[in-house]
Amino acid sequence: MHKLALFRLHLIVFLWGFTAILGKLIHANAQNLVFYRMLFAAVFLFAFIRIYKKESIKVSKKLFFQLAAIGLSMAIHWFCFFHSIKVSNVSIALSCLSLSTLFASILEPVIFKRKIDISEVIMGIVIVACILLIFKTEFQYKEGIFYGVLCAIFGTIFSVFNGKMFGKTSSGNIIFYEIFCGWAILLIFYSFSGQIFQINEINYRDLALIALLASVFTAFPMLESVNLMKYISPFTLILTVNLEPVYGIILAFFIFGESEHMSSIFYIASGVMILAIVVNGFIKAKKQRTLIKHKHQS
């Protein structure tokens, strides 16, 4: 069962890595892409929860607004991610995602009221140094790097606050309301800003690809990642998810060719960032095992 769970885990991380590929294949701008991705994903999740599973989607008013706020951060995170791809390329957007670990090391201690981990600070310094090196070497992609950093910031906000929601209602409800509310907020914003008419500027090919993105590469991996928590540790999940940029960058290199070919410094810096995240994961796991051992002895 454990080996099957690990295979399923790597499958969903591979699917997450492929979202960047679809983001480049879809010609629609980031604004339309995120709008329809959230709409289709919300429909798929609603059908799965209410029609297939026949479960209730009722939540308290307080929880609804909390999930709506997190859904907004998810929408901004996805917009920045796909816009980064549109103005630069897949490799730049995915490498910037590594900054999420740094931002989490700062935000998590504040939200969960724990001490700052020195290993996380050291890792953060290494990641920032690598990003600065990439920025200096790939300066022509400065706009993509800017939106990639914003993507990492809002992705961290989403992940950290999302962690405080689990247990308050079913995991399916949490994911559904976050995505649905994120879409609803975008709809309201576009309506008042006059951008609602631009939403129609999309062709059937892009709609089909977005539907694929929303179902196979969004709704399914999110639900599957929650189910896998029954069989694998949070550490294994987090460590494996860090492979998303690796899968995405390799896929982009072979699929898109010349437009994804970066300098050797970019690949070295990206490799160092990913290695730093993996090493930090092992350090955390060792500390956790030591802590558990001491508790048993006492």
Tell me what you see in this structure.
- With 298 residues, this protein is mostly helical.
- Helices cover 80% and strands 0% of the residues.
- The chain is built from twelve helices and no strands.
- Helix 1 (2-25) runs antiparallel to helix 9, helix 2 runs antiparallel to helix 8 (171-193) and helix 3 runs antiparallel to helix 7 (142-163).
- The longest helix has 34 residues, at 264-297.
- The chain is globular, with a radius of gyration of 19 Å.
- The protein starts with a helix and ends with a helix.
Write the layout of secondary structure elements.
Elements: H1 2-25, H2 30-52, H3 61-87, H4 90-96, H5 99-111, H6 118-137, H7 142-163, H8 171-193, H9 204-228, H10 234-241, H11 244-256, H12 264-297
* Unreliable stretches covering 5 or more consecutive residues: none
Count of helical regions? 12
First CA to last CA: what distance?
33 Å
Gross morphology: globular
What average pLDDT do the residues reach? 85
Structural class: mainly alpha
User: Which oligomerization state do the chains in this entry correspond to?
Assistant: single chain
Largest sheet: number of strands, sense, barrel closure: none
Q: Give the SSE order as H and E letters.
A: HHHHHHHHHHHH
Q: Brief description of this entry?
A:
With 298 residues, the protein is mainly α. It has helices at 2-25, 30-52, 61-87, 90-96, 99-111, 118-137, 142-163, 171-193, 204-228, 234-241, 244-256, 264-297.
Quickly list its features.
298 residues; mainly alpha; 0% strand; globular
